[in-house]
Amino acid sequence: MKDSNIRVITAETAGFCFGVERAVNLVYEQIASGKKPLYTYGPIIHNETVVGELEEKGVRILNGPADLEKAEPGTVVIRSHGTTRAEQERMEALGFAVADATCPFVKKIHRLVQEAEEQGKRVIIIGDPAHPEVRGIRGWCRSEPLIFAEEGDVFPNTAENEYFAVSQTTFNLKKFKKIVAKLKKNGYYISVVNTICNATQRRQSEAEAIASQVDAMIVIGGSQSSNTRKLCEICRANCAKTYYIQSAADLGNLGFTPVRSVGITAGASTPKKIIEEVQSYVRNKL
Questions:
Q1: Residues with catalytic roles
Q2: Confidence at 2, pLDDT banded by 50, 70, 90
Q3: Which domains does the chain have, with CATH numbers?
């Protein structure tokens, strides 16, 4: 249903963050330089459209150590999420040229956990243990860190260790604060660095504010994008009609009912052109 009077609010923070844009640009620089074969270690970002465009240009994805061992040596780009120390060293040992697109904010966490261990502290990572960023951070620790994704995961502390906690950069800020409070309540002697990046915090705050004032909320992002899923959680808590899509093409299947106002936000791996296509669809076809 087309409604020329529909009010559309698009988040200013929607779309590529600094780290993602830097990573994608680095891959295109390698393409332009004629580097072949050219690989990314895992999808360069969690956006199927971007990854597909790179594959069309000859960029191959290595999905882990087994792929790395079998691949013809060439240039491999470490994705924005980073990787483990062991995997990076293995790339070099096998003769690959390594172009490191790890987000600088993630690299900072790698340095922080190493320094904490040098000071005799045990590391705690607050984040999703299955997420590639958390897996990478874990791989820069010399001893096994504790990883907590939910407040309920935190168990009572009986050890005398001094702990040092960091967060996945795209983690939900409110959930992070609750987990930290639970750690302290459960007897952890802990120092904490909030390593959720500023862009993530601004994106989450803005999404919450917009969702609380519109009739429907659209969240755009890749199906594997952790930060987009968290945006969706935040929006759904404030707007019952919240829709998680990957592109404008998905909107036709969602069964939108007529609304007077729509909010739009997008995860850090969503290209500007996809956001613009969704804006156009909402204004011209709803």
A1: 133
A2: low
A3: 7-15+200-285 (3.40.1010.20), 18-103 (3.40.50.11270), 105-196 (3.40.1010.20)
